[in-house]
Structure formats: C-alpha cells, structure tokens
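subagent[fold] <- orchestrator: predict structure for attached chain, return tokens only, no commentary.
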Amino acid sequence: MSVNLHYEDKARSAGFSSVCGVDEAGAGPLMGPVYAAAVILPEGCEIEGLNDSKKLTEKKREALFPVICEKAVAYAIASVDEKEIDATDILSARMKAMQLPSMRCKSQRTMRSSTATATTARRQRSPRRTRPSSAGTA
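subagent[fold] -> orchestrator:
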C-alpha cells in the first residue's frame, strides 16, 4: 500500500517532532453526538489497511482499532453531545470535537492534520513525551 506522507514530511522538515491525525464522524445525522479521534503514530509506523475512516468498512475499522491503540504514541477520543450542538451549531461542535482529542495528544511539538478541515500548524511544547493519562477514554 502506498501512503502519501506529504504533510507529515513537510511538518517534520519544519521542525515538528510528531504529527497528530484527527478525524470526526457523526456530523451528517440530524440528531446525536459528533465524535472525533486523534492519534500520533511513531515516525515510520505503517499499519496495513489504514486509510480515511470513511473509506473503510465497519469491519475493517473495528479490526484496526486495537492495532492503532497498540502502536500509537498517543490517542484520544472525544464527543460533543446534541445539546451543545443545538446550543451552538454543527460546525462549532465539529471543531470542538476535533480539538479535544488533539489537545490530549499533544506531545512536544505537534502539527495537527485533519481530513475534515484545512491543515493547520501549531508549535506546542511539552516537557516530556508520554501517553496522556486520558488517552483512549471517551
């Protein structure tokens, strides 16, 4: 499988030590929460079959989840409930749902890369590079 690491390579050449991938789901339905997940994989880590979650079957997503969790430097899952969506709007809820897990995954200097929104870069500093205590929790 050929993987396009253009943004990851660009981030690392700019001095970022890791890249956090973020994706959301649930923005299409008329009711219910919006979920998002973020993951930082070690540089050079390749997981067979890993692709945009919307391009994977449910069975393949379920099979990849424990593999991703095992190999990840950090991962987190978050949601924004329908009450908050109604109080704000779906775009704000999607952005918050993606921001929450990516902030939990921040590690040293990180670039956030999202399939749902434009890629943004932010230099973040952390004294240590460890799995957050909240990693893997909803």
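orchestrator: received. Logging for downstream: The first strand starts at residue 18 and ends at 25. The radius of gyration is 15 Å.
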